[in-house]
Amino acid sequence: MSDVIGLKVFTDSGDFFGQVEEANLHENRIEGWRIKVGGSVTSLIGGARGVIIPHQFVKAISDVFIINKAALLNPDPESDELSSDM
Which of 3, 25, 53, 81 is the most exposed place for a label (fewest CB within 10 A)? Predict the structure, then answer.
């Protein structure tokens, strides 16, 4: 788990999204990932410093994290870090 902390995150269309800060666990399963936002997507989320991406939107984990860009269109309403001003 600690190997993925700090990995760069890109969307499936190749845009830099940010960096993995931590995994959100629930009952010993990864529920989502807290991502520190950077790059061109910062304007899409209304100034939030980070977002929580549900694990089902992660397409690949290797030297980098690849997420489905659709994850940006489905904000978690319970997250205080994610702005819904898209």
Answer: 3
Distance between start and end Cα atoms, the chain? 31
State pTM to two decimals: 0.75
Average pLDDT, the chain: 81
CA gap 40, 18 in Å, rounded: 9
Q: Residue 11, CB half-sphere, CA atoms under 13 Å: how many? A: 15
Nearest to 77 by CA among 51, 56, 57, 59: 51
59 within some domain: yes
- From the list 9, 10, 5, the residue with the least C-alpha distance to 24 is 5
86 part of a folded domain = no
